[in-house]
Amino acid sequence: MSLRGKTAIVGVAEFKPSRYTEGETTLGMLAKVASQAIADAGLELREVDGMIVESFAEAPFMAPATLIEYLGMTCRFSEVIDLGGATGAGMISRAAAAISAGLCETVVCTTATRREKRSTSGPKRTASSGFTGRLVDRTPTAEFEVPYGAIGANYGYAMIAHRYTHEYPLSPEQLAKIAVAQRYNACHNPDALFYGQPITVDDVLNSPMIVEPLRLLEIVMPVAGAAAVVVTKAENAARLPHRPAYVLAAGERTTHKTITYAPSLTDTAIRGAADDAFKMAGVRREDIDVASLYDCYTITVLLTLEDAGFAEKGRGGEFVDSHNLQFDGDFPLNPHGGQLSFGQAGTAGGMSHVTEAARQIMGRGEARQVRECEFAFVNGNGGIMSDQVSLVLGANR
To answer: Which of 34, 55, 150, 263 is the most exposed place for a label (fewest CB within 10 A)?
Structure first.
């Protein structure tokens, strides 16, 4: 089934990233940002009949129903998505599919991550809750990798970077240029965590080494935040206040959970996801006006540029050298600053690539608006290059 032009993003909302959210609940953040996105679309709650939400700790079971009840909605379609950093893009593809299939008409997709200064204990066993205590991770990762120090994402992406530089030419300066360009973009986005804090290639190269070869300024800053998007039938879009960003295509691939079982460290599932998306959209790579690429690390961006088909395999460093990745350059990349400089608010960080692409198509990019933006490519990445979701958005159906 082709999704081309059947649905459109018509409303977006996003919290300004912050280091901490004292006193907030994830449920409250999800509800607030969803309500803001619905209002931004010019709609009422009663006009939204679909809900897609991420899993969250405060509702270990029936997360969509929890949020629907909290907002006082009645939905014909509800879903929970768990694709890590690809969750935001995955929500859009599923909303478009559900609407195209006639299961609902308008869907709100909402994500949120809170952070507290002091860690809190996990859920306790109680006699009345029906929850039977902490969930125990019995995956192969927990059994056979975590005990030996394979914890978090830094080590996995460092392995990828090491392997890439073994197979292909790539200099530290080329990776640093990615971070510098995104910081330039962030300095034109007042909501970015690093607004007003430009950096140079030397700043990146002189920042502390975290996990060789990855330096501090090549790694995202975890923050708190929330983001939501409203997707509706294309026929509804014309009557709403903003220029719609039509969903022209989606593609998806999942190959593994942990880096140990990745088929390859340098050829990723992005290739298949992007190929499917471009084929469905009927759009060429050279038609793309803005690339909104998941950027947990600089090496992630480089691999995405190659495997999504913008650069030849093994020549991503050359691509970075020969193109200007700033929003006002010849290859606008992550005009909001990307997660490297906007901030990574968990799954809401991944959703920021969707909200930014939609804003650019809508002409709402403000000081960082890309000129004549007709097509946008989005890629969401979950885990350690595990889940990949590609989207193509357009100004016309």
So the answer is: 263
